[in-house]
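Forgive a beginner's question, but would it be possible to get any protein sequence you like and the tokens describing how it folds?
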Amino acid sequence: MSDIPEVARVMMPEKGVFLVGLPEGYDSPAGTKCLVKLDYGEDVAEVKMAQAYDPSLHGERIPGFRLIRPLMAADEARLQANAELAESMCVTFLKLATAEGAQLEILHKRLSFGRERLFIRFTSPVLRPDLSRPCAELRRLFGVTVNAWQLGPRDEVALTGALGPCGRACCCTCWQTRYPQGLTAERVRGLGVSPGSQNGICGRFKCCLAFEDPKTCEQNCQNRN
């Protein structure tokens, strides 16, 4: 039996990607929903890739996060209860935020599997509204840590879904886990793209333009998963 540990890259529902250690004998394929142990407790994730631990690829330290097991049918009842609790918590959160003068639209809410953390993704006409009091009050009332994240234009499209100018689903909604790097105005101009067709539905440079530029194509292909 090999002494080299197995690790997996997993993606959270909010698109965050973590490296986790695998239990001995784990053999579920990529795409499997699983239960993981993170720094804040137990949560759900999707396995993107599993492989032997390689310090040159994964860093010098073996990850402290662990994959516990694949999700089972028996977990569905808890996930449903968590969704109902998240809804109730967000009603309170919005009331508190409105009382503080904040204008929010919540686009995503989720309670972690272990109910230690509430994830909120919102949009607001105000940049970085002060939500310290609503977050503290939810911690007092429900015992959860609130992770409230204001979405920018790209994040909003990735979360809500949309069709691009090409008529297909936007890259960020169907396969892309990271936004392209190195996509600058100078490079876009160098591709000979007309100004009227440079931007996607989010108003930012189209993600697909990064794969038209040989200087950034290789880097961004490595970041697809």
